[in-house]
Amino acid sequence: MRRGQVAYAKSKSGKRKGARIGAPRFKAQRKARLAFRFTTGTIRVDADGRHVTLPRLGTLRTHEPAVKLLARVQAGTARILSATVRHERGRWFVSFQAEVKRDLERVARPDAAVGIDLGVKTLAVMADSTGEIRTVANPGHYDAARAQLRRASRIVSRRQGPDRRTGQKPSKRREKANTARNRVHHRVANLREDALHKLTTSVAAEYGTVVVEDLNVAGMLRNRRMARRIADAGFGEIRRLLDYKTGQRHATRMVVASRWYPSSKTCSGCGAVEAELPLHVRTYQCDACHLVIDRDDNAALNLAALAAAAVTGTGVAGDQGTAPVVSKPRGADRKTRATRLRRMAEAGRAGGATLPHQRQTETRDGTQAEALTLW
Ligand SMILES: [Zn+2]
Question: Domain coordinates of the chain in residue numbers?
């Protein structure tokens, strides 16, 4: 509620990014997310690293050890500000918001840039500034689980469901079947999250500059033919993860190419721009220099080249926005800060399963969200 009010006030005064939002609405209790935050009282990670102590709840054992946060607290480089407990994907998690002093991690190739072209067939085509191209296959976790989900859903629909008119309650057998179905969904979400973290962590740890496209993910999700695959690939999440990993962990830069930059239609060899390039044309052929290249490879190379246009030097200096096509180089303004707020440490415990609620995007000033899984 509080957060909703803040977002609304910012929207009204024009400070908030994104579409205009309405006044906060009241939520029905059954629709509310199971989440709450402690800002006062005893909030700590116990000395064994296996327990956390929270107000009212007392000491709870965590499924995963919270040793990283504990070590930081003991070394005096972290101070816990608040704790948020939430129920998600059938587990209980606790996240700590902490003020953390951390050293920046060096990247392997600070002078190199990489352009990332996201797609559905291959999740990512990455071209670096030396011209080397790597592809990452789309793991397609959701598609892999569809048969399983179909079976689980069929079982659910054959059980006695709820009926609001007659007041019929769902049967125990239905709830059990629904729990089984939710478990499949949760597993897909966990697999996806893991894969995206691994991809973005390795990219952020290697390059001094990362160039991504400003994809209109919300718009693409409105296309019903594309929605399932786009959502499964997690384009928006890749961008979000890369943004904070480059900005906060390595203080490298992420360049976001304008939504209207013709990365696919431009020739990576000579710079000529084709007028039309329908989506089904998978190979790029340049009329000017007769270059023949895979469509996605071409786009990734163009994005990598964009970095060179936007960045002069090593990417450590803060000269931003030199190229007109680059809309928003990120992270350069924050990198000298020694102290940063950061949400650390997550924890979960197996419990009942509910349908995953839609993830809300939270904007918190000065807060960096970094999820370490604890239990
Ligand atoms: Zn050409």
Answer: 33-104+338-344, 109-310
Is 117 among the residues known to form the active site?
Answer: yes
| CB atoms near residue 200 (< 10 Å) | 23
Residues constituting the chain: 375
Exactly one of 88, 296, 297, 346 is catalytic; which is it? 296
Tokens representing 4 are: 């909703």
For this structure, is 46 an active site residue? Answer: no
Q: How many A from CA of 274 to the centre of ligand 1?
A: 9
- Residue-wise pLDDT tens for the chain (375 aa)? 455 555 555 555 555 656 666 666 666 666 677 888 888 888 999 999 899 999 889 999 999 999 999 999 999 999 999 999 988 888 899 999 999 888 899 999 999 999 999 988 899 999 998 989 999 999 999 999 999 999 999 999 999 999 999 999 999 999 999 999 999 999 999 999 999 999 999 999 999 999 999 888 888 888 888 888 888 888 999 999 999 999 999 999 999 998 889 999 999 998 899 888 888 888 999 988 989 999 999 999 999 998 877 654 433 333 333 333 343 444 344 433 444 444 444 444 433 333 333 333 333 333 333 333 333
The one catalytic residue among 128, 206, 213, 232: 213
346 is catalytic: no
Structure tokens at 178: 């629904």
